[in-house]
Amino acid sequence: MIIDGHNDLVLRRYRGEPSPNMDLSAARDADFAGGFFALYIPSPPAAEPSEPPYALPIAEPIPFEEAAQVAEGLYETLLSLPVRRAASVDDFRPGEVTAIVHMEGAEAIAPDLSNLDEWYARGLRSIGPVWSRPNDFAHGVPFEFPASPDTGPGLTDAGRALVAACNRLGILVDLSHLNERGFWDVAEISDAPLVATHSNAHALCPSTRNLTDAQLVAVRDSEGVVGVNFGVSFLRADGARLPEETGLDDIVRHVRYLVGRMGIDHVALGSDFDGATMPAALVGIAGLPLLVEALRAGGLDDAAVAKITHENWLRVLDATWA
Ligand code: ZN
Question: Distance from the CA of 198 to the center of ligand 1, in angstroms?
């Protein structure tokens, strides 16, 4: 069984775009049991530079009223998918696809948190306080390469209140798009395991979106988990968007590095399917068995593969949602 830390299928369907990676009809054969389905309020598209430092301009903040309206459409789209919504880890079953309702950026949450309970009742179980643009809760990490994730201030007071409320309700707080200051702010105040749903090792790929060794140690010490992102520009040492020249071995390299830093109990998968450029060898859900093979070929035994593919996610979700 495979549980995954991030996909952007909902946005693709909401926009009426093709879904390059998330072919749900392939799920059963690939043993894909679901994972985090992002509700992401899109910024206007920016041209993605093809040369280093691959820096995108920082996107403009999106006001709450506007974001809340888009989030309604995204949520409706999620409800139209052939998936169940996860309320507990028992909802994950082989042969079915279960969606963790996840907000990537909390723009649709009122700054006074007055609609958070309502979203919890609708099934929301995970929030990344920011995507890579500033909002009322935090300053996100802009995409830069090579660069440190230490790019500016972290959580706002509203962001601290959001983390506390998530702890109280049992909503996972996702660290993946926070900058380093925001990461440490959450680490200081959260009583839940630290989780980065779709990030990699900064030591192997010095993108601002990846985690330093010190951050990895903090995730380990909190009993948390990092989901390895398959996006080629978060895998490659040169940060380049070169799908043909990036292989499954590049994913395995990050898995092995993270296992080396944190131990086998703290590494999982966080594909970024439909949201990032995948290695050409990994077409999407249908290619996941090839990745499992590559993990085995990379020296991971059955017990280790089971932890990485689903057991670590289930442990952390259970501890967070309890
Ligand atoms: Zn993301």
Answer: 7
